[in-house]
Amino acid sequence: MITTQTRSGNGGGGLQSPRSPQQQYLTVSVTDPAKMGNGVQAYISYKVITKTNFPEYQGPEKIVIRRYTDFVWLRDRLFEKYKGIFIPPLPEKSTVEKFRFSTEFIEMRRQALDTFVNRIALHHELQQSEDLRTFLQADEQTMERARSQDTGIFKKKPSDLMQIFRDVQSKVSDVVLGKEKPVEETNQEYERLKRYIFELEDHLAEAQKHAYRLVKRHRELGQSLADFGKAIKLLGACEGDALGTAFSELGAKSEMLSIKLQREAHHLLMNFEEPLKDYVRAVQSIKGTIAERANAFRQQCELMETIKLKEIDVNKLRLTRSEKMLDVEHELEELKAAAEEAKGRFETIVRLMNEEIVRFQDQKTQDMGQAFHEFAKGQARLANGIADAWRSLIPKLDSLSAS
Questions:
Q1: Which of 91, 92, 94, 101 is nearest to 39 (CA)?
Q2: By C-alpha distance, which of 125, 110, 93 is closest to 356?
Q3: Which of 29, 37, 134, 233 could form a disulfide with 1 if both were Cys (CB 3.0 to 4.6 A apart)?
Q4: pTM of the predicted model, to two decimals?
């Protein structure tokens, strides 16, 4: 949940109290997931609560019901309209029925969607989006109409948007095979950015993979301790006196530690693995923006080449005093206007990307620091709990071995 966002000042990073005088704030939270419908038509709805004093909003508080496809709609609209800005990623949509409606998956989805909309509301440009206001305020019927009216790029799924980037990558193969000459920026800073993003994606994916294994190991160990505890308690029931009591206590401690491990596994999943996975998705989203920059540069270059060819045609027609000369000159002027527009579009993307990468790195430092802090704190808490539990049994087990 967002605490607050000032409209002016440090460009999206400063948080103030929503009660501070003369400060504009926008707070959003995604809560109360609920299953709607049955069978293949079933889906999860969420309550989206907005509190704000922005004058363009309908009032100080608004509560709407949204489903996953509404979040997809918002992301697609922003991706299309805000070229050069890193649009926050959405969590994947599970197609496996047994996971799709599990309590844990629903909570992970809710947390990821909350993070998604918060990042948009905190962004100094995206927070002013008309589409964001529609998403946060429109009733369900209006929201459904907005989704159904979208065509073209807005109908694409988040994964489909990444096809733009894959298309750019396929150009490299065409070049290797001699099919096409690349039209790419020769900019060292841009090359460093691309290299950084590709390497970051690899390293984050590797870290997330091992975080997943840690969660799995905690759960498996927890289950093993639960099974062991039950077996030892049954064994204790067959014994009498001190030995039976010691076995029963050992079984109880094992079951108690099993619960601790399962809880820590869930904490590790939500506060360590999921943040890593979220940043893998964020980097993939950045790659989509890089692809948009490559497309804009290519369009600019293609227009400049077309202008050169058209100027040759104009010169030829002037020499022959052709009647077509005026039409071709008009076409040339239109091409020049289009090239100027394309140049401005490309320069805007470059400027925004330079700002965005700084913001992204600052946010990543904060988020990753928090994730690793939670990881270390959780592991220390778990280790201490395990050590204390086993340590409390040692005196009783010592007395048994000594007798």
A1: 101
A2: 125
A3: 29
A4: 0.80
